[in-house]
Design brief:
The longest helix has 16 residues, at 102-117. Helices cover 18% and strands 41% of the residues. Strand 3 (55-61) and strand 4 (64-78) form a beta hairpin. It has helices spanning 25-35, 102-117, 133-138, and strands at 3-8, 11-19, 55-61, 64-78, 81-93, 123-128, 142-143, 148-152, 155-158, 162-167, 179-181. Strands 1, 2, 3, 4, 5, 6, 7, 8, 9, 10 and 11 form an eleven-stranded mixed β-sheet that branches.
């Protein structure tokens, strides 16, 4: 796992990549406190369990958790091709720190950590609200064209929010075809 310091504007942020299963009680409490401040605004799907999103990037300012993102390795079926991807999930920045560059820093660190841990995954894939598309486009992401489907306990559904991808490796190409997130969304 990596541990690095990033300075964003006037505020330094230390970013750690950690395994969810190894979170200390202090880290779990900081995570719960941060999560309680976020309105994700996503549809009420059945999402993957926290334990199935094992790697977390934690952005600390002193002893306060100010940013978070989760990553995991998954597959997306595009047409007839299974594509290994790094799934980005649960991106959070304290509301009083949004707009300061912390979100971009934690997402970039997530992309780098995902590429390091899973070099076979040429892209990161994630879902987001329409209001956040511009943010991710500035970080090099693109919408996945056409309807995207995913699994739920009662069958296959069409994603009601935007699904995006971002190349992680130079020269990575995305296949042509309809995309299906294999398994529950992350």
């Amino acid at each position: 796992m990596t541990d690095s310091a990033t300075t964003v504007g006037p505020m330094p942020m230390r970013i750690e990549a950690r395994q969810w299963a190894g979170f200390s009680p202090r880290e779990l409490e900081a995570y719960a406190e941060l999560r309680a401040t976020i309105d994700f605004g996503v549809p009420p799907y059945t999402w993957t369990e926290a334990a199935d999103r094992p790697v977390r990037l934690l952005g600390w300012h002193g002893d306060r958790l100010v940013a978070h993102a989760g990553i995991l390795v998954r597959e997306v079926r595009v047409g007839d091709v299974l594509v290994p991807v790094v799934g980005l999930c649960t991106v959070m920045v304290r509301p009083d720190r949004q707009g300061t560059g912390l979100g971009a820093a934690i997402v970039r660190a997530s992309f780098a950590e995902g590429a390091r841990q899973w070099p076979e995954a040429g892209h990161a894939v994630f879902v987001c609200l329409e209001s956040r598309v511009g943010f991710y486009e500035r970080l090099g992401a693109h919408r996945i064209d056409g309807p995207v489907t995913f699994d739920q306990p009662d069958g296959t559904h069409e994603m009601a929010i935007v699904t995006m991808r971002r190349p992680l490796a130079k020269g990575a190409t995305w296949p042509v075809g309809r995309a299906h997130l294999v398994g529950l969304p992350w």
